[in-house]
Amino acid sequence: MMKLIRMEWKKNNVLKYIRNAVITTAVIAILIVSIAGELVGSADEVDAVYLYGKGIMGTTVELFVDIVYIVFTGIMLASFIVGAYTKRTMHLMFSYPIKRKKILLSQMAAVWIFNFIAMIISKLSIYVILVWTGSFTGVSTADISFGGLSFWLDILIRSAAMVSISYIALPIGLQLKSSKATIITCVVIVCFTQGNVGSVRLANNLPFFVILFVLSVLSAYLSVYNVETKDLL
């Protein structure tokens, strides 16, 4: 499987996505550092300390990075999988003496592993920059605790969840045979996961994210279901 995953990265020029991830992380870091003082200064005394149960800087980092990587994952799914169908390169791949399901799963895994790792590195990089610039901006980063187990668990679990829910867009893109539909669906997912419904905050709403995670697993299953016998035309 790892050989197939590496082949997918090479075939789709993963260096291009690494470059884009680095640029995106740098842009997010610059943006957050530049508005850090305003974020804390404009919050009331309660929200300035904690927002959604976390420090406002940590919440801001998660908000920006989550939005970016939900869409980023959708773009890669559109390129790696949906695009392979629309450009008919999947026909060639399915002619290999390898089960179709294994090929499709390797493509899905290639996208998931890349974005999971990239998302973690992106968050950690931004946190390090915030701590380093804290003495210049005067913004407290006391809530960023690199030595706390909960800090690392939160990053790992949340990154896995955010990348996974992007897969809800995959069967939609495959059904419509449209890369654009895949990306647009991810944008819609961003609006739901990072927004509010009335007075209900969906961000960090555990039951809501459990439902989305179940839907993502179901979506992944539907994407590979019956692929061995399904007509490509």
Question: What would your notes on this structure say?
Answer:
With 233 residues, the protein is mostly helical. The protein has one domain (2-224). Helices cover 74% and strands 2% of the residues. It is built from nine helices and two strands, in the order ααααααααββα. The protein has helices at residues 2-11, 14-42, 56-86, 89-93, 100-137, 149-165, 169-176, 179-193, 206-224; strands at residues 196-197, 200-201. Strands 1-2 form a two-stranded antiparallel ribbon. Helix 3 runs parallel beside helix 7 (169-176). The longest helix is centred in the middle third of the chain and has 38 residues, at 100-137. 32% of the residues are buried.
- The helix content is over 70%
Low-confidence stretches: 42-53
How many runs of DSSP E, i.e. beta strands?
2
Strand content: under 5%
H/E element sequence: HHHHHHHHEEH
Number of helices: 9
Mean pLDDT: 81
Oligomer: single chain
Which term fits the overall shape? elongated
Structural class: mainly alpha
Tally of structural domains: 1
Strand order of the largest sheet: 1-2
Query: Radius of gyration in whole Å, from Cα?
Result: 19 Å
**What is the end-to-end distance?**
26 Å
Key structural traits:
two-stranded antiparallel ribbon, 2% strand, 9 helices, 233 residues, mainly alpha
